[in-house]
Write a structure and sequence with these properties.
The protein is α/β, with parallel strands linked by helices and about 525 residues long. About 50% of the residues lie in helices and about 15% in strands. Among the domains are: about 90 residues, OB fold (Dihydrolipoamide Acetyltransferase, E2P); about 140 residues, Rossmann fold; about 60 residues; about 45 residues, no CATH class. Strands 1-2-3-5-4 form a five-stranded mixed barrel. Strands 7-6-8-9-10 form a five-stranded parallel beta sheet, sandwiched between helices. A five-stranded antiparallel beta sheet has the order 12-11-13-14-15.
Length: about 525
Amino acid sequence: MDLIDDPMEGQNSPEFSVTELSGAIKRVIEGEFGHVRIRGEVGRVSRPRSGHIYLDLKDDKSVISGVIWKGVSARLETQPEEGMEVVATGRITTFGGQSKYQIVIEDIKPAGMGALMALLEKRKKMLAAEGLFDTARKRPLPYLPEVIGVVTSPSGAVIRDILHRLRDRFPRKVLIWPVAVQGAKCAPEVARAIAGFNALSPGGALPRPDLLIVARGGGSVEDLWGFNEEIVARAAAASEIPLISAVGHETDTTLIDFVSDRRAPTPTAAAELAVPVRHELAAWLDGQGARMGQLLSNGLSARGQRLRDLGRALPRPDTLLDGPRQRLDRAGEQLGPALITGVQRRRVRLADVSGSLRPATLRQRLRTEEQRLAGLAARLDPALTRALTSKRERFETRAQRFRPVALERDRRAKADAFAKLVKRLSDAGQRQTRDWRGRLAGMERLRETLSYKSTLARGYAVVRGDGAVVTGVKAAQKAGALEIEFADGRMTVGAAGAAPRKKPKEPPPEQGSLL
């Protein structure tokens, strides 16, 4: 009988693969810890493009990783921020790919009023550092707006108070943008409403408001928290339309109050800031009209008196005409003798000039000119002969260039050059035509490759219902009749006597151009 040695200590324990051991740990942890609530401070926060949120929850000694899936993060009333103290609810799980455990968070809320106030102070400092609270950027409110846009709940008492107050003071056109005034939907809806009013075109079918009022009744800090969100504050700061915030009671303060152009303690006070009292305005206009009439009457009286005073200081018209009349009489007396003297002076001058125009002087002048012309004529004949000879020689020289032999030689040279140009043009046109045909053939092959008809040739089909492509069972059930397209034609399903339709013949390709 052979003796069998006992195995070494530990060799009889089972062997696990890495995945098996990781799965066993996962089952133990998830079985021991179901849903848990963890209180801690938010550490690192990461928001990748996938929409999920990865964060750390920590206290003074430990850190646990957490993840909020995209669908859950969209429903959260409060988004986690670094340094925020929260209470997270979720389930503990493991991630075998990195050998770590984490909490999958299903809900997260601030840990009490202190956390909310700390978050609010942090946002307030950030927005103030960006200059959104500066007084210089706040715009004045229009004195009498034609259209007023109100962002509030359509079913609360706030809108009734605003409309009633506007009707008592000065009726105006009011556009109401209904929004949720608390809860997770509050902040995005209020931000979209402010941006939507600003996006309206002036003079369009729906008039653009001249003034905006964002209003809500009183409530707790949690109820008013939507107006403390960053997107609401930035939307109010970016509004091109002057904005009045009327959120809560007089003691309530939210971030939108700091970025708005004016803050009203109550919604009713916002309506009072928006428009003046019509009767007071009418009384003021009447008073201004009376003052204007009195001032106009006094001004006319004063100017009339000043005109009369200036008229008394002006000289009389007869006095102004005495001097010119006297000068006119004196000039008339001197005119007759001056004319006689002028005629006599011009007569003497004419006699002096006519004395030099004697017949003998004229005849001497004519003989001198005739002699000068005879000398010029003697010189003109040889000059004309020389000029004619020179021009005839130049003409003969130029005529040599236009003889038939020279013209024929020039024509042949130009004909050869033209033939070469025609050959080069023809070769270039043929090369370009070949290139175009090659490109068209390549594009045609690419079109055939990318066309869905090539897919039909491999056994697939296109289903259409009521003229639209059907991609699912529900759409197919809703359609009245289905048309199925195969590679060789189409057929209709669900209509009696339907026959497959032949594929239409494609027109033959057009004859290409040689050039």
